[in-house]
């Protein structure tokens, strides 16, 4: 089997939304908003230019409710509605992704994170090196021997490549056990509640000894500190549910087409035309760095 080249897998909406919040409002002369589009392109072109040779794929959240919403109606219920300027740019975003000429995966019933985890697992299984570009810490569980996460971080911070070793150093559990860890400490971004009193250090110590929610609950009489045993048992159903919700799927059906594609000369020409239309004059010269 021939090893695949380095593949960049893009968490599209994560990058797009962060670009919108990082930049001041931008508009074409005709008044079309473009700040999220510009920031998305600038960040992506920078990574494509600095990490060649590279193949590319995009993942987008489907508009339908996912299996997580069916299991927990309040899942991600604390998130604000999508700002109108972002909604106004979504059509152009589709045009932009088409111009890149790389596969765009959008699968009803699952999140883009599940698609990315599936892509990463398949590509790594075929001998490829994978870099998942996202600002979502949920993707840290994809980190492994051939998979790293290009974490976008907060506004003003430079993207950072996060390895499996980095994840374990930060959370004190390996990437594959992050869902069990999150089942205990909760996740405010996804509106997953925590077990009262259980903090990161306690959760990590439990997960290190008992690497699943079921095993932790079965060993409750061995857990320290003893005062947290009762709260844990009182939230048994929540913990088991959280673990399932936090676990990214790696079995999403992605069709029979290619998983990634390189940037072609035709793609560069399409991007030049679209950039001219969107008045992204400063980005056109940068395309030379990502061409074949």
Structural notes for this entry:
The model has no long low-confidence stretch (mean pLDDT 91). This protein has helices at residues 12-22, 35-50, 67-71, 84-87, 90-100, 112-125, 164-171, 178-185, 200-209, 213-218, 229-234, 236-246, 265-278, and strands at 7-11, 55-59, 104-105, 130-134, 147-151, 160-162, 261-262. The protein is built from 13 helices and 7 strands. 42% of the residues lie in helices and 9% in strands. By secondary structure, it is an alpha/beta fold. Strands 1, 2, 3, 4, 5, 6 and 7 form a 7-stranded mixed β-sheet that branches.
Q: What is the string of helix and strand elements?
A: EHHEHHHEHEEEHHHHHHEH
CATH C-level of the largest domain: Alpha Beta
Low-confidence stretches: none
Helix percent band: 40-55%
CATH superfamily caption of the largest domain:
5'-nuclease
Mean pLDDT: 91
CATH topology of the largest domain: Rossmann fold
Domain module count: 2
The number of strands is 7
CATH 2nd-level architecture of the largest domain: 3-Layer(aba) Sandwich
In angstroms, what separates the terminal alpha carbons? 24 Å
Beta fraction: 5-15%
How many H/I helices? 13
By secondary-structure content and strand pairing, the structural class works out as alpha/beta
Q: Sheet bearing the most strands, described?
A: 7 strands, mixed
What secondary-structure arrangement, pairings included, does this model have?
Elements: E1 7-11, H1 12-22, H2 35-50, E2 55-59, H3 67-71, H4 84-87, H5 90-100, E3 104-105, H6 112-125, E4 130-134, E5 147-151, E6 160-162, H7 164-171, H8 178-185, H9 200-209, H10 213-218, H11 229-234, H12 236-246, E7 261-262, H13 265-278
Parallel strand pairs: 1-2, 1-4, 2-3, 4-5
Antiparallel strand pairs: 2-7, 5-6
Helix pairs in contact: 1-2, 5-13, 8-9, 8-12
